Amino acid sequence: MSAVVPAAVLVLWELCSRLAIVSPRYFPAPTTVGGVLADRVAAGDLGAALLVTLARLAFAFALAAVPAVPLGLLMGIARPVRHVVEPYLAFIFPVPKITLLPFLLIILGVGEPAFVLTGASSAFFQIVISTLAGVQTMDPRLLDVGRNYGAHGLRLFRKVILPAALPAIFTGLRLGLGLALVTLVAVEFIAAKSGLGHLVYRHWQMLSTPEMYAAFALVGALGLVLTRGLRALQARVLTWQEDLGG
Hints:
Largest sheet: none
Order of helices and strands: HHHHHHHHHHH
Strand content: under 5%
Number of domains: 1
CATH topology: MetI-like fold
CATH superfamily: MetI-like
Mean pLDDT: 85
Structural class: mainly alpha
Shape: globular
Low-confidence stretches: none
CATH class: Mainly Alpha
Distance between the termini: 21 Å
Number of helices: 11
Radius of gyration: 22 Å
Helix content: over 70%
CATH architecture: Orthogonal Bundle
C-alpha cells in the first residue's frame, strides 16, 4: 500500500506532461527522466557524482557519530558533564549548519575538509541529543533491577544503560545521516564542483530539466537506501525490541 500514492503521483505527472497540461520543459515526464537517468548512469557521469557524494557522506557521518554517541551517553550518566555541555548544544543546535560553511571555508579553504565538516556538524548535534534522550528516558526501574542483580559501574552501563539507550541512538543515527546528506547536497550546490548536488545545480542553470530531475532522484534514492539500511541494522542488532513489538 505504501507504493500506491507515489505510483499514482507518477502516473498523474506522466499524463499531465504528455498532454502538456504542465510544461514538459519544466516538468518532463517520469519516463523521460527515467530514460535520461539510465543513460547518464551508463555513461558514468552520474555514477561518478554519486561516488563523490557518498564518500563525503561516509566521512561526515563517521566524523559525527564516533564522538557524538559517547558524548551523549556521558551527558546522560554524568550530570556535571550535562550541565556544562547542554547550554552549548541548546545554543548551536537550532542554527542551520550550512551557515557554518563560510567560516570553515575561511579557516580551511575551499576543499573537502570544509565540505565534510559542514555535513558532520549537522549529524553531530542530532546524534548527541538523541543519545542523551535515550539515557534520560530510560525506565529507572531497569537500574534498580540491574543493581539488585549486582551490576554496578561499567557492568551496569554495558548490561542496562547502553541496551536501553540503543533504540534512541539508532534513531539519532538515522536522522543524523539524513541531515548530513541534506547539508552536503546544499554544500555541493554552493561551493563544490563535483557531486550530485553540483549536478542538480549545473543542470538547473542550463535548464536541462530531465538531467536535473535524474540527479535529484538519485539523491533521494541514496537517502532512502542508506536510512533503510540503518533501520535493517537496527532490527538485526535489537532483536529483543522486535520480539517485544511482536
